[in-house]
Amino acid sequence: MTTLILLGTVCLQNPAQAADVEVDVELVLAVDVSRSMTERELEIQRRGYAAALSSEPVIKAIVSGLHGKVAITYVEWAGQFSQRTIVPWTLIENEQQAFAFAAKLTAKFNSSLRRTSLSGALDHAAGLFQGNGFSSLRRVIDVSGDGPNNDGRPVLQAREEAISQGIVINGLPLMTNEGLGTQFHLVDLDDYYRHCVIGGPGSFVIPVLEWAQFPQAVRQKLVLELAGLAPAQRYLPQPVAFSGATEDGYDCMIGEKIWGRMRLYWSLP
User: Under the phi-then-psi rule, with left for phi > 0, alpha for psi from -120 to 50, and beta for the rest, what region is 89?
Assistant: First the structure.
């Protein structure tokens, strides 16, 4: 009798563990809202994700999986400690739920935040998988941004830590060069993402060169991620030491160096 009571007590103390819902993928949409983004760009991003999530190809990708359901959360990020959850973890297994998620994205538009910390975004996103009520064989961080890391710890460290937890990181570099902070824009931002940000099996980058491409790029990226597919061309980064550069010499500290030069310029009389 005592043994049965103890077993019952253990079960009651761990309801979350028993309640985890199996899904095909757990996906964090981590979207840049740093100060370099204009209000127009912020709205384009929200509406682009909303349109993609409620599109026929994306819904088909969701329901065609082994379980026919996915878990998604939408987070906006800027500086090292500047992240806000716009839509919390949500189960999507039909068209109605996809439309409801999309509606929450466009219900209210928030203002931009300061600085750009890709490392902070990755650290925050990686932590969101813990105790989220879902379980899957694929955990993915989908990160977008218009500039390199210039705040927080080096992005290579955050990337390697996330990959070591079995998380895949895909990138959507925004190479539109619109708005404030153009001094931080990189001509080769897509290469920066390939070398310094993405990682894990099948990881990929889809660059956006102009905002007219954004809705299609998001739709393509979501279909690949939710269906567990990989694009024809992808870049798989090799493990690196935390020296600030990859094995082929790409400087992943370029954003921090630009910020340092700008601070020196601002301090001059």
Answer: beta
